[in-house]
Amino acid sequence: MTPFDEASEAFMAWLSKSGAEISRKIQLQDLRNIQAGRGVVAVQNIEEDELLFRIPRPAILSVENSILSSEIPKSTFEHLGPWLSLILVMLYEYQNQTASNWAPYFNVLPTKFNTLMFWEADELEQLQASAVRNKIGKEEADAMFKNELVPVIKEFAEIFYSGDVHAQKRAEAMVEPHNLELMHKMGSLIMAYAFDVEPVNVQKDVDEEGYASEDEDEALPKGMVPLADMLNADADKNNARLFYESEYLSMKAVKPIMAGEEIFNDYGPLPRSDLLRRYGYITDNYAQYDVVEIPFDHITYAASGDSIPFYDEKIEYLDEHGLIETGYDISAGNPFTIQESISPELIAVIETLLLEEAEFERLKRKGKLPKPDQLSARGAMILHGFIQTQARQYSTSLDQDLSDIASVPLTGDIASKERRYAMAKLVRIGEKKILRNAEQALINMAQTKERSTGASKRPAEDDNYGAGKKQRAQ
Ligand SMILES: C[S@@+](CC[C@H](N)C(=O)[O-])C[C@H]1O[C@@H](n2cnc3c(N)ncnc32)[C@H](O)[C@@H]1O
Q1: What is the rounded CA–CA span in Å between residue 74 and residue 42?
Q2: Among 121, 369, 409, 453, which has the highest number of CB atoms less than 10 A from its own CB?
Q3: Which residue has the higher pLDDT, 406 or 420?
Q4: What ipTM was assigned to the predicted interfaces of this complex?
Q5: Ligand 1 pocket residues where CB is under 6 Å
């Protein structure tokens, strides 16, 4: 037996000993041949609603279950928040090695990651103008580790490294690069593996956001749920779901599964850029959720070259209504339509900026905004300009990228440069396709309006306000 299989076997044995109930119809398998690490596979036919496994709550690696939480004040964990608290507990359990209850679990968790946090600068460069590059947050995480986590480890060094005469020294060494890297690894594990774990008294089944969410549910406690996190994910082939029960978390089939089929969870409707950022891989069937972001900067830049009546007041008003964002999504959509694919907030922002003074004052008095489903011909032209501006931020064109289409290597090192370059290229191609679709949809809209009004202006670079006129610095 290979060490990889031995670790899987020891993990499954530990889990059973911890009180987990695991159907004999499933197996944890080595799927490295398809570059998917470990995964859970059906070895017999499974019916819809059938229980695949149930994990007792005490087996979850969480703040609540770690002995550390009984030794460090509750207020410290509250101050750290769910993410840093779980990182702290994971560091504690990890450095306790075989003394940790979760040692066999750590042995099946990855120590190398392909998520964007661990990409080299030249690899990230392949994403070109993708907004995902601004969401990686490596520096912010480093600062948080140094300013929030390390002081707690230092303060409680004697508990954290209990019995070690060098406890204080070890705590001080936590700011060293290899230890910050370890914190990033724990953070990445949480991002790709943890679930939002509802408190025991809340009986609620986990929806597609079962995997720990980042923004909306920042305050929810996180937990590493053994085996549940060994399921890979697939947007189309999703066939299982985790249900919360008072004593257990239960994974059940949500459709019949045939022997030999892999059991898949779902990460929700994530664009491939985010799939890469959070999970370090992409598959084609997430292309349906791709988005491209139009940065708010394009609006400020375009406005700076034009005199928009009441610009500052309008921005303030839009901000009061929560419409000022760092960027606005345009999503893939099939078929692509302006209504379905373009952020209604972006349309409302553009249409507000275009309002004549009297109309702006009138809407303001009523506390209203222009209707986001009514993009005017002028608004369409401006939007067209933003889209062209955004397309120019990428260092290659869609046609250049498509002339030599990338394919992600199916064998070899999962973290190879070649693989990362190929994944990045597919992400940027997806974004450029959306920009092209949006441009076309706006041209079609202008032509339709032209036919109905006899007007002759098309959305193009010739509009004064259009950002297309000015090339932004690359
Ligand atoms: C929750 S874990 C799933 C278990 C994981 N395969 C393992 O061996 O530990 C999530 C990670 O699995 C991998 N993964 C998930 N779904 C995948 C898929 N459909 N294809 C390839 N890799 C996948 C990614 O590396 C992701 O970060």
Answers
A1: 42
A2: 369
A3: 420
A4: 0.99
A5: 35-39, 110, 192-193, 229-230, 232-234, 279-281, 283
